[in-house]
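Hi W.,

Here's what went into the run:
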Amino acid sequence: MQGDAYLKCIDPQCSLKYSIESPNVQCEKGHMLDVKYKNKPSVNLKEVFYKRRNSEGSIFNESGVWRFRELLNFCQIDTENIEECSKYLVSLDGAEGRQSKPYRMSKAAEFINISNDNLWLQPEGYNPSGSFKDNGMATAVTHAKMIGAKKIVCASTGNTSASAGMFAANEGINCDVYIPAGQIAPGKLSQAYQFGAQIVEVDGNFDDALKESLDDAKNHDGYTVNSINPFRIEGQKTIPFRALEYLNWASPDWIIYPGGALGNTSSCGKALMELYEWGWIKKIPRIAVINSEGASTLSDLYNGKFEGEELRWNKGNPNTELISRYYDHLDKEGLKPKTKATAIQIGRPANILKGLRALEFTNGVVTTVSDSEMLDGMSVVGLNGFDCEMASGASVVGIKKLISEDIIKKDDVVIGILTGRQKDAMLPVDYHNNPENKFAIPPKN
Ligand code: F0G
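Here's what came out:
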């Protein structure tokens, strides 16, 4: 496998290549990078992955991330050699991705108005730190270790910091987390403290925190673990891998994600591009990204709500000036992202270009939902015995909205990703104490 993996700029006109050991998250012209593999993995690996579900004592088989290690082998190791795996691969004792798979949730299906046979919801909140972030953090911290980084750094609306803090503590490396002061769920903040991360409170929103954290990483030798890091994207590919494997690699019609910084959208797109190119899937599922109404940058740009132009990847020639003008407009008007779903309260999605590429490849769609709709989505998931946070509720109500608009057809097979677990304890209490809420079960005296 030596020499199989490398980094490549995503801009087709630039296409600069770098060694897999490069610490940079951008090419020298400032474009994003992809992890690329020269060899095409054998389709026979499907059988190997399936067999690893009987872990036979290996945490790398137990892990829902490293079970697919041949498809993310940027360490270029012999993946059958467990000792070699333990030297390189970062894992929380095999817990990342271990419990994640698609489930049926009949009450959610009824609410959405879709047949229960056609709806799958995949909770990523049962990861060890409580969100999908552990999928990509296991791989990003693996790369950090591989290149000898002493400190990892991130900005976060909460879940990234919890995940980064957890893996850093487990690996004995330092971790600085930049958070928008007063704007993250208390449960997420307490996790970062609990895992011993150095909290840096930023007077601003996530976009401001990201800028500060990137400066810190650059000036103080930190390793950035936000989703602009291409190795984060590698681990997050396992979210669609697990979903597809569960369906025997028969593609659904749709995969639905809430949209924030668009790391998920990017990673799902990359996973589908690779699987299709390798002949592992015959049909390309369509991706739907659900923004909050109060943080709708992608939706505004993709749907032509700003200057009337529908922003597209355009085969690698996106109109980046349109994006800059949109951001200037936000600044000039003093418009800040605002939603109760703080996880996705993001105005400048750092992965927007990779996100557009994913949408182009999958003929994707983008829409918005309101805060009260997200709370209903979150609550109906709860009524099925599953826990998720408000931002994850966007997947549920996003599917409902797209079905009502006849964009998702009633007989389409749909997988919605429930990105994180409830970490704002009072949110369900407040929801259920208000009898006007659709699914409220108010307390009795
Ligand atoms: N859902 C949850 C629960 C999240 O925590 C996030 C992002 C998203 C959805 C959006 O995912 O960025 O891939 O589009 N949270 C980040 C954080 C930004 O810092 O924890 P995305």
